[in-house]
Design goal:
It is a single chain. By secondary structure, the protein is α+β, with helices and mostly antiparallel strands. It has one domain: Muramoyl-pentapeptide Carboxypeptidase, domain 2, CATH 3.30.1380. A hairpin with a 5-residue loop joins β6 and β7. About 50% of the residues lie in helices and about 20% in strands.
Amino acid sequence: MANAEPVRFDLATGRVETDAGERLVLVPLPSFDELVEWAGPDVASRFARGIGASIGRRIASRLGHAAGVRGASLEGFVTEMALQMALSGWGSPSIERWGKALVVSVEHAPTRDRGVVVAFVEGALGAATGTEVHGAALSADGSVRVLLTNATRAAEARGWTSDGVSAAEVIARLHGAPTGVTA
């Protein structure tokens, strides 16, 4: 890791900065919720994607840029992602493998808007890995599970979940399994 202090609080000047010199602003959760509600889903998602991208860049910087991220162990990546998300108030991530599918589970996200959480994860992972990332929310049970896939499959998964298809069934369909699979 590049620096032991990923975020610095300079009380004398009233600044909060990352170890790369990027300024941060701490926002009260009610203000964030109001912004998400007022801005609408498209703007709120772009805003969250931008926050996620900032976190992704910090992850990449600390792990050796995109190549370092791709070469890091899954545990090392998740540990760094968890640190950066915790410092930013975006909850606690974990990674789940469902067959060939990769799912990021976010507990304690600062918003209940699943689309905003998906956009945040897309931004974070896209910036960290240097690749385009698309996601679809799979659940809303206190945590948000974000299925990561390509744009076409993410759109299919979003359609199925909006029709009430369970997470396990979405994964089964993406794997080409017969429908009716339960978990």
